[in-house]
Amino acid sequence: MHVPPDDAPAHQGIAPHRCGECCTTMRGVAARRNGVSVLEDIDLHLHCGELTAVIGENGAGKTTLVKCLLGEMPHSGEVHFLDAARRRKDSPVIGYVPQHNSFDKDAPVSVLDLFAASLSARPACLGVSAPVRQAALAGLQRTSAGQLIDRKVGSLSGGELQRVLLGLALTPVPNILVLDEPMSGVDHRGREQFYGLLSKLRREYDLAVLLVSHDLATLARFADRMVFLDRRIVCEGTPSQVLHDPRVREAFSLHSLS
What we know:
Rossmann fold; four-stranded antiparallel sheet; alpha/beta
């Protein structure tokens, strides 16, 4: 993997577009599982219009961090959101894209069924209303996946499925978009297209994006900030700064790469 030079510019097109007022803050966040500490003293700020990438070895606490942010895991410390009007809110809208391989592609449902289950209390087997179909189509069009609305989920490629799940996470448009290893099982071309789309969407909607991934080479090009996690935040900064940190180079064997 090519590590960018120390003076490499940040990914272009972000800073001029973000309002700079919205911020999600994790302060002193810690979590335990079966009595064992899995996350310690996390202080993290997620700003609108920025893509923050979280990297770390297996077992470093990356998914636990995501679950704490989503409110799906008990934790100590504070998590709060400040909107553009400088109002503190405890319940921002969060869009979530899970790992590709955690989704049951054998389920006998269509893409429209997925959206209907999220957007309406009416069982999809009773039919999908025109407003729900319209909302689903609008969400899919945000990710250039409108043509997939009537496809069966099991027939989608890995890249197509991730576009569908991203469109679902953007319906309605959230304050924060969280993605946990979204490109697992997707080929290089598909990853490039997905991250390019994600970069475009964060500018258009001024999203704060938290992305967990092992894809260091791609993250070096698309992320604004990078966080190296090992139960606690070991280091953070621009991708160039983090990937040149000796602790990161040792963990990922970057010392042997140019």
